[in-house]
Amino acid sequence: MHIINTLWRIFLATAGLLLLGSLLWQSDQFHRILVRTPWARELAEFVAETVVDSHRQNLGMLGLVHDNRWDPLPEDALTDSLWYGSLESQVSYSQIGSGVQIGSVPIRHERGTDFSLVVAKVDLTRTDVRVLTNDSLAIQRDFVEVMAKDTGAIAAINAGFFDENGARGLVLQNGKELRASNHAHGYLLLWDEGAYIGPTRTIEAKYAIQSFPLLLANGQLATDDAKNVRNVARRSAAALTSNGDLLLVATDAELVGLTIPQLIALLRGLGARDAIALDGGGSSQLYVRNTDYRVREWDPVPVALGVFPRSRTR
Fold it and tell me: pTM, whole model, 2 decimals?
């Protein structure tokens, strides 16, 4: 009887700790303190990778969720001309500021849980999109939400890849080059009322970042290499539509996400003409002011893209 009582107490204590941990994890303040702690962040990322790796073979096909219906993502969505732009009418956008709309694409792996591709659609003729960084060398790291609130951005998303030495590629802020170009990466160039995504820096820009891989060029696969990136991960990307809108997208799942081909297929469905992947995994994060749409951060980043209302005096 004593052994049974001891085991029962251990069970209750364990259940209590798990419940407390779950509640704390949902707390933004606790979450941010936790992921700022290097050992805790590394442990969380290890657990996430382990969970994804253990389930990767069992996730099954990716599909779109319509009410209670689940439709598999078409296998030919990467190239089918009928698929291009077919998701745009299914996204219910909400206006969150002049020139900025927010919506999502509900998706689910065949044997997984529901999550979304969060989409911020930005009208570049009514907004300014700027490069955000915490220091003049694009080395010091912080969370995208913090950068956005510090600068007054309506929305913000993490930018390209980095290492302990800072951003790995061009960072151009208000015409000043903070980091030099990396010729192996693609470009996102920004100027007043316009943007470019592609392999070369042929246009004079006010703001710019680099990342990889390039995903789409004129609505088609930018490179064959991109379709071979089959690992499932949290994803972020930037894309331009045929009418010149900028799409900033990120998956909101904590532990699962998309392969690069799946991300490309969804972007094509949203009408993306040109697209580039941003840093994913723990770096993937998207903040949108005064909405429930959000991709929580795991890792602070040195550079972000921020969306601002355009001054009426311009």
Answer: 0.86
